[in-house]
Every structure is written in C-alpha cells, then in structure tokens.
Amino acid sequence: MGYARWLILLVIAAIFVGAPRMAAAEDGYELWLRYPPAEASLAGGYRNAARGLVPGENSPTIQIATTELTRGLTGMIGQAPAPSDTVADGAILYGTPASSPLIAGLGIDLADMGSEGYAILSRRIDGHDVTVITANSDVGVLHGAFEFLRLMQTAQPVRDLDIRSAPKVRLRVLNHWDNLNRTVERGYAGQSIWDWQTLPDFTPVLYSDYARANASVGINGTVLNNVNANAQSLTAPYIAKAAALADLFRPYGIRVYLSARFSSPIEIGGLDTADPLNPQVQAWWKAKADEIYRAIPDFGGFLVKANSEGQPGPQDYHRTHAEGANMLADAVAPHGGVVMWRAFVYSHEQPDDRAKQAFDEFAPLDGQFRDNVIVQVKNGAIDFQPREPFHPLFGAMPQTPLMMEFQITKEYLGFNTHLAYLGPLYEETLQSDTYQRGRGSTVARVVNGALFGDTLTGMAGVANIGSDRNWSGSHFDQANWYVFGRMAWNPETRARPVAEEWLQRTFSNDPAFVGPVTEMMMGSREAVVDYMTPLGLHHLMDTGHHYGPGPWVDDLARPEWNPTYYHQADAGGIGFDRTATGSNAVAQYAAPVAARFADLATVPEQDLLWFHHVPWDYRMKSGRDLWDELVLTYDRGVASVAAMRQTWASVEPQIDAQRFAEVSTFLAIQEREAKWWRDASLAYFQSISNRPLPEGVTPPPEPLEYYKGLTFPYAPGNGA
Amino acid sequence: MGYARWLILLVIAAIFVGAPRMAAAEDGYELWLRYPPAEASLAGGYRNAARGLVPGENSPTIQIATTELTRGLTGMIGQAPAPSDTVADGAILYGTPASSPLIAGLGIDLADMGSEGYAILSRRIDGHDVTVITANSDVGVLHGAFEFLRLMQTAQPVRDLDIRSAPKVRLRVLNHWDNLNRTVERGYAGQSIWDWQTLPDFTPVLYSDYARANASVGINGTVLNNVNANAQSLTAPYIAKAAALADLFRPYGIRVYLSARFSSPIEIGGLDTADPLNPQVQAWWKAKADEIYRAIPDFGGFLVKANSEGQPGPQDYHRTHAEGANMLADAVAPHGGVVMWRAFVYSHEQPDDRAKQAFDEFAPLDGQFRDNVIVQVKNGAIDFQPREPFHPLFGAMPQTPLMMEFQITKEYLGFNTHLAYLGPLYEETLQSDTYQRGRGSTVARVVNGALFGDTLTGMAGVANIGSDRNWSGSHFDQANWYVFGRMAWNPETRARPVAEEWLQRTFSNDPAFVGPVTEMMMGSREAVVDYMTPLGLHHLMDTGHHYGPGPWVDDLARPEWNPTYYHQADAGGIGFDRTATGSNAVAQYAAPVAARFADLATVPEQDLLWFHHVPWDYRMKSGRDLWDELVLTYDRGVASVAAMRQTWASVEPQIDAQRFAEVSTFLAIQEREAKWWRDASLAYFQSISNRPLPEGVTPPPEPLEYYKGLTFPYAPGNGA
Question: Nearest to residue A54, comparing CAs of A131, A137, A158, A138?
Fold first, then answer.
C-alpha cells in the first residue's frame, strides 16, 4: 500500500475515532457536548443499538438532529451510523408521526408531549430491534436526539428504553445583559458574543454552536440585549441584525426576544411622550411590533425593566406597571408575542425597606395584566445575593403568571474565578414552600403553573455567556448554564444529579472523578455564602463592581445602596429587623411562612440576620454566641475552599491537563479571595462588635484601613 | 486484535497524521503555524531530512524549539523525529556552539548573526547528512527552527541548505493600544487579549501562543498597554501582572515594555508636579524604574505619547520633548532600558498645517536626546491614512535614532471586514527615498540604521490582535501582523513574496490558490485608497469612529479634526496646498524631494491632492480632467473589490469551507461599503464641484443628506 493510500486510510480512521489532537486541547469550547469514545465494555452494545439512522422527512431541524447524532455516535462508538430509509437491526428512527410513515405506523401516544417534548422508545419492527425518537414537532425530535446521546455520554443503557419528557415551563429563556458596544453588564466571560458590527451579514459558527448548546438543555428563547435597554435596538438596522440571529436559531427551536426601552417612542420615534395611555404612543408600539414581526415572524416578545434604577417607565406618566405592560402586550398580541415585565423595582423616593418594594408595587396589580403578560420576579427580594429567602411575590399573585428570574452569571458570587455551582441555590428557591395554597405550594409549582393553573409560564436566566473560548469564563461556570436549562425544563429537577451528569458529559465518567467532584460542586455555593455573607447577611459587596468586600460602605447617595443599610451592625448587635418591630417585610409572606421567619425560635439560622437584628451574644443552636458563630462561619468558608482545592488536586490523573490547570489556578485565586473576604469582614465587624476572636481563629493580617483602601476600578462586568 | 487495541492504534495514528477534525474546523487560531501533511512528492525527502532531533543543552527556549519542531514535523511528514544525542542520517542538530559540543565542533562562523540571528546549514558529520540550526543564543536557534519549518510549509527543498539571517532592526515591537478595562482603542478583533483581572495568577495557553506567533516572525518586544496611558499600569499590582507576562514571553525572546503616562508622579506618586527637571520627579521615576526592574529584570523600557491629543507631557512645564524623554531615559539607563518617545504630536493651540507640526517640534531637538532614547515616527505626517507620503522626519534627524511606527490594525482602512494587505503600504514607505544623504537615502536605511550608523534601531506596529478566535478579527488581517514582523526583521523585505509565503503557510501551497490570491492581496490596499481617499485625499473619515465617509464634516471644535480642512474643496477645485503658496510643508523634505512634490509636473498623481490645490478641470496624465479622474478612481476602487470577490469565489475548491465562507462574507460587506464610500463621496464632492458625472458612471442612489444622516454610535474601536 502506497504512502498516500496509507495516509488517506489513517485520515479516515482518525475521523471515525475522534481527533485526539482536539482532545488534547481541551479548551472548554465543546461544553457538555463532547463525545469521546465510550468505555470498551459499553461500546459494543452501543454500536449494536446505533447501526443506522432513519430520519423522518428532512427539514432544517431534522438535519441538525442528523448532524448531531452522526457527530455524537461517531465520537462515542467509532462508527458513523449509515443513513437509511429502511429498518434494520440497530436502526434509530427519528422524526414526527407526520414526517415518518414508519413512526406513524407505531401509533405512539404523544398527547402529553406538547410541542417540544419527546419520547425515546425501544421497539421491534419487522423482527428488528430499533430505537424510536419521536415527538409532535421536529424540535421535540431534536431534544430527543440530544437526550439519546446523553444516555451514552453518561454510560447508561440504551436498550429497553421508554423515556418520555416534556417541558413543564413554556418560556425557558436566557437574558443577555449585553450592550450594543459589546460590553456585558455583570459579564465575566469576555465581551458579548453578539458582534453587532458584522451582523446581519456575518453569522459565525459560534452563533450556531450557541443555539446548539441551548437546544441541548432545552432552552427555547433568548433575549439578546440588556434589560437596561438602548432604544437603538429597536431601529431598523438592529431589527435586521436580530432577524439574522432569529433565522439561525429557529431550527434549534429558539426564539429571539428583545429588551425594550420604555421611552423608545421619544428616543427613536420622534414623539414627545411615552405615556402608555397616549394613542400615538400605542400606535407607535403597534407599528414597531408589526415591523419586528415582518422581519422575525416568530419573534418572542419584549422584556422590560421599567421604573427601576433610573430606567424610564409608566410611572413617569403616573401610570401603573400594568398599564405600561398592557400597552406593549396589545402591540405584540396579534402576533402571538408576550411581554415579560420585570418586578425588580425600587423607587428613588421610597424610604421603606427595599426588600418590600417589589411586592408592595406589584401585588396590588394582580389581575390587571393582559393574558400575554408574565411578570418576571427575581428569586429573592434584594438582588441575586449568595443566599436570599424566596421572593414573597411567588404565590402572592394568583391571577398573574409569574416567571422566575435566576442569575446564571455570578455578579455577587465571585465572578468567574470562584467556583460556585448554583444548582443548590436554584433548587433551594424552587423547593421553598410559599404556603399560599397551603403546604406544598412551592415556588416550583408557581413557576410551572401548577399552583394556579397558569398556561403562560417561564423561567429566565441572566446569561453567563461571553466571547471567552470556554463560553462562561471558567469551566465550572458552564455547569450553571446547564443546570439552569435543566431546571427551566422541569423546576422539580434536583441539583445533585444534574451536577453528576454535567461532570460526566463535560469531563469524565470515571466514578473516582465524578464522586468527589460532585461533592465539591454541591458544597461550593454554601462555601461562598460562608465566606461572603453568612447567617443571612447580604449585600456587603463593595460599590459598583460587586467584587470583594465592602461592609463598611456607608457614604453612597441612597441608603439602600450602602452595605451598612443591610447589616445594621452596631455595638449592640447585627442584622436587619424585618419583623413587626422593624420593616415587617415578613408580613409579605403567607402566614405560616411569616410566622416561621418572624420567630427567633423557628427562623432558619441561615436566614437569621436577613430577618432579625440580634445581639452579638445571641445564643445560636450550636451553643456559641452569634459573634463567635459568625467568625467561625467565615472561617469555615475559607476552609471549604481549601478542601475544594484538595479535592481537585486529587483528581488530576482523571482529566486533561489544560482544564485541570485552569481550574487549579482559579481555585487558588478563590482561596486567596475567600481569605480576603473573611479578613476584611472580620476586621470590620470586630471594629463594631469590639469582641475578641474565638480561640484558634487567625486574626486578619492587615488592619481594617488596608481593606478599605483597596480599589478595583477595572474589575469586569460594570458594562461600561 | 481487540477493539481497544485497535482504538489505541488509531488514536496514535491520528496523532501522527494530524487531526483531520481540527483541520475541518479551520477557525484561524493556528495562524500561519499550521502544519498539514506535506505533498506526497516532497514528504519522502522531508522525512529523510528529519529523522531525529539532536538538541543542545536544554533550556526553556530550546524546549520550545523542540516542541515546535516535533509539532511541525509530525504534522507535515507524519513522523515525530526521535530525540537523540548522537548523530545519524537525517538528524537535525539545533543549539548554540556553547550548548552543543557537536555544533561547536563544526566551527561555524556566527560573527554576523548577533544575538538573534541564525544559520541553517546542511552538513556531513561522520558520514551522516544532517541539518544544523545554530546561533549565538537559544532565541536565535528558535528563530532558525521556525525558519526550517517554514521551508517545509512552503514546499521548498531542505537539502544543501546554507541560510543565514540576522535582524536588521534591534527593536521589533508590537504596540497594544489596550486599556485596563480590556477595550482596545482602534481594535477590531474583540477585546484585549490581556485579562488583567486574572493576571498574574492565570496565564492561559493563549498567552504562550501569542508569544509563539510573534517569535515565529521575529518580533521581540511588546508594549502591553495603550499609548494613551493609564498611570495605574505602573502601580505594584499591574507591575506584577506585567511581570507574569514577561516571565511567559522571556523564553520566546520577547521583552515587555509599558506605555508610561507622563503625569504618573502626580497621579500615583503623590507629587504635585511631573516637571522633568524637578529632582523629586526624577527620583520618583528612578525608583519606579528600579521597582519595575526588580519584577522584570529584562524590562524593555517605556513608550511615551506626550503633549499630543490631550496627553500630559513636558511642555506642560515649558520643557522640551527631549527634556522629558531624557528624564525617563536616565531612569531606565542603569538597567539597559530604552525610551521610545513618540513624535506624533500636534498642538491644541498651533494653527499651522497639522502635517508640519511633528517635524517643526522634533527636528530642532536633533542631538539633544540621550543615547537610549529612540523617537518613534508614524509612517506619514498625518495619521495612518490609506496613503501618505513618507514622514519628513525620516532622514531629518541624523543625530537621533528614529523608529518607524506602522499601524497594523486598520483604523482608517475599513476595520476588520475590509481586506487590505498592508505589505505594499509598508514597502512604499520604507522604499521612499528621503534624499537626505543623496539618492538612495531610503526610509528603510534610516530605520535599519544604515544611513546614519545608528545602533539603536526599531520598528513598531500598532497591533491588530484581540480576543477573537482568529486573533485579528479576520483571516486576512493575520497577514498584516505577519508582514509587519517580516519587515521589522529586515526593512528591505518586499511585500509580494511575504504575501505568497503567508498564503502558503496559512491556506495552501496550491499554485492555483496562491497565484490569484497573491494578486488579490497585492492590489487590495490600492483598492481601499481608490474607494476612500484617491489621488492624495486624506482624513475624510467620519468623526470619532473613522468608519465610513464624512468628507462633509466641518463643525468639529478644532479645524484639523474636520475632513473639510484636509480636502479644501470649493467650487474652484480641491486639495491641500502644501507648496510655498500654501503651508509649504514640502519644504520639510530634502530639496530634491521637496521640488518633486512641489511641482505639478513631477508630483506623483497618487499624492496630487495631498500637496496641491488644483482646479476641477486640471488636466491629468490620462487626459481626463481632475473631476472625471476622481470619479473614475472612486469607481475603480469599487470595481477592484468586485474583482476581489470574483477571485475569491474562484478558489473555493482549494481551501476549507469555514474560512472560505467567512472571507466571502467579509468581501461582500467590503463591496457594499466601498460603494457607500464612493456614493457618499461623489454625492458630496458633486455638491461642491457642481460638475456632471462622467458618462457611464452610476450616480449615487441616495441624496447627500442620506449619507450625512447615517450614524454609527457603536462602531468598534473607540476604546470607550
């Protein structure tokens, strides 16, 4: 055999095996969609179950499914299943009953699968064992194809399958806080992936890979631009740019939405008002919606941040949030669009507890919104803190659909260099019981619509995606994107199995890796709580960038911008009294919850200082006084990170060198910064409490003034 | 053979062949350092010449050479040469005479190779045919290793080699106009590759790959931060960050430099003056230099933009540029550092022709600078226009080393989406004859020090590198980085062979590709001149972003910010009179050059309107009047881009789909924007000239007001 022929053979072989040089450069771009060879003990069975591909009638979406199945199977089992239109042993049939007569002939009941769910079923046809991936739509089929590949990625059997899954939430959307100049507010993964300058002409592979990744975890919408919106996003050139993305995302089952600046009629419409009851304003929005839908027939709708943090809104004209939202809802309703109206508001003039304001503003509006409005509520009442009690609005607006807004990007959790798996945070919120319809009225059941029978349901995640090669600024931050998708698909999903499967898909199936690293992930968010804001403390981050500690900050223009407003520490004690003797924010919860939070005997200690101002010598369940407990909790946070480093060091043999090194470096940064958080916080709180550190605790190595003097003018994420 | 063994064999095979899936995803990250399999007709000979690697004593730099040779040879000839310490047929010996006794024994004369040059010699040792790559330093050996690989990449023989090459310029540096918040002034390739937030801890592979790419074209220095400098860059935390980069770059032979803000003693030093003659200021800079050199022992020195465009400088204290530069020079001199002092100045108060000001400011200072100061002069007297006559300072300061400043990033040449190969621009400048020591006194001979015997020589390139996956924002912009490196190594280098070899290394050796695409590249910059600023017009770009045409702009605060200042068009004619009847800028050139430019009979038509104000009916060499010529030249520019698109379409079979598609898209954008440039310019100039378009020319499709009304508030590169 001549050298050239030998070369050609090797090239072909390498294609089938999966390119090892690529595997050698594990830079994170592949996310959880890596398809390394399956273990030898499984590969034989997998090959038998994936000998051929029998697609339904071709469509762009089916083509994507075919590409993905080919890519995945080729990588994992070393053979590209042959495309075919007849059934043989090991055939994978995929398509809808409408697009595949073979599948139609099986009479599969898809009544509960909706427009996006899927079934994966092992069947026998004409004496042949086959796998059927089917759904009511091609997008459902695509979801099923990803699920089938996931089974192999996670070393599960693919015989005797009887899997059915349909999303429990209708709108599963990413919110990109991306500006037109490509800065990303609270983004720590480089700049915006949207290169508005070269859109609509240039749509790099990156954009398709973004859609592919989202589709693989069931995300079905994306709000392209920052909620602190720029009216330019609604001008013709930018609509054309958004349309190019919508065209690209459509076959992946992903709709495009835009954040709308409420004052756009003035800024780009030439009107002198944006009053939602003004007919000209209403007509302007209707015309604008028509214009958008001409370019993007399946445009999802608008996301609006109004009358919050300086954004314009209906209250500028003495109208309610409902009146503002309904005007936009009327504009998109003829096209099937929705309005996602954010409840994250606090007023410039309102002196009351900031934690109460969204509830006070929105609860009275229950029932006043149009059917195609959904109110988007952050998980907690302040602002994406490492821990917050669930937002009291959940369950409190029975006649209004509420959607969850989680933050995937780690604005307050150490940016991209701190490892904090947010699955436990999401689960903690979703599994919180609002008691609004008695026991079991969990937030999850508000979000999935079960509690009040909502058909319009949704979950939003503030994206952590940027131009960084690994998408999210760190390898482990990919897990937060992933778990958001999983929990949006079904809010009853638990964090731990998602961590496990993400690790398997992203790194390795080796139990010696998955076991300890799952534990590391599961404890990681609690570590951040401990070293930043333990025992219910919150909003102690330094001004503006939210990077590093600033519990001493007390000189900002508005009281609720200052950390001292939130911790209320003085010589006598610490904590924000939100009981009846204080702001009485607890009263916004259903009675059983309010009672539990209001009573020192029943309030969870993790929320203690969120709801109560207590003396430094308050006796904790541990028997220690509060001051000692606080100090030891800070210390425990640092120790947790040290333990995470040890765990990670122990798995070096199991994974690739590049990702191992990067994670190691980031964990080292995290440990140093955890110490900084502890030391700065203790130096400050000790200056208030005037109490000695418990025995054995290392005192801060620097005086308080040192920590106060640190500045970070170029910390990322300010969006400027 | 079991499946697992078969798999292992295939994996190993794939490593040797070069991974085809990687080749399939040609995203540009590999730059010109791609190593696809050599043609079968050459591979045999290459394999015989590269059977083994015999390195000199190991060092970080030799290790890099080993890695590169292994990577390159494995890719190109399908075999990893075995490391060895004995000589056999096909051995490659690489090292210095000091590090390799085998090489020392050959008695090779390296006297002219300096500290960075290399020799590649075919030799016979003990009856074995070997290749010797040697130099006076390990970095020289590394340069030789890249050159050896280049021979194979470009399908050249590697037998009977007798290659010697040493750089003709000492400082070959990139200037990064990168800000601490990761914006890049005039950057069109994403954000800064320097992630200051995670430095010094995290040094991703990207940084090593940056150094590797630069070393491969002979670049030996990098100024990390914007010339519009931030004093924070000189604080301890940022020095530590720069030191981490310096440590990484050192084995590649690349030194780190910093832009220094002249007022740093005030801003970060607590002084109340930055007067260069003030002893406290001098002491502060000396201490600062000492601090930097403790962290970076081979720190290159400072780059300074002073008293220009609002930057602070010595003139704030009524001191000269020389006094300012010398103070800094004294601070770094004990450590062997240099000061690169920019001559790009124009005064806020100076009403004279902006083109004259740098010369007027600097020429009188000749001889007043310290030995370790080099004055950095842009290629032309205005500002990186598509075409400028060479800067009159070149050759005019015989007692002062001058270094060239080219712009690699395309601030005024259509950003990243316009294809403009800048090799011809660089060559045109370098081959311009200043006549300052008679005929043959080319700019190249000023820059390489030959004309005046300078030993301190340099060439700076304003980098086009950013966080984009393909480094430069487009595949063809990589060529501008490449040709800059080549011409910095030797200013006598010509643009065409560099284009050819870059295409071979980056895309394909196929003559059916290289031939037409070389032609396309060679004509591409002239096309931009034609559709933007033909016949010596300049600075007609719209305000601020420099994207798109703005010849009508006349309302900016300072006259020399307005395009109307530069074109001087009125009903009678057009052009800037820089002869004795006008600003007399021509008098800054040596007499023969001045006479040639001043005389309408001898001035090159490409520079006509740079030097002369002429009537619309001025007769051109073509026989046409100026107006018609102007219109037809604009038209020709558009036609050139259309022809470029045709050329590119014709080579589709020769290259990979991904890069083909991206370049095609960008060329389509370029053609549309070339038309926009032509149409807007003609609409405007016709409104001034009131003359009809020549027959056959398509009139602008929109009225002038349309073009005036276009705004691009989010065009990239403003650095804000």
Answer: A131
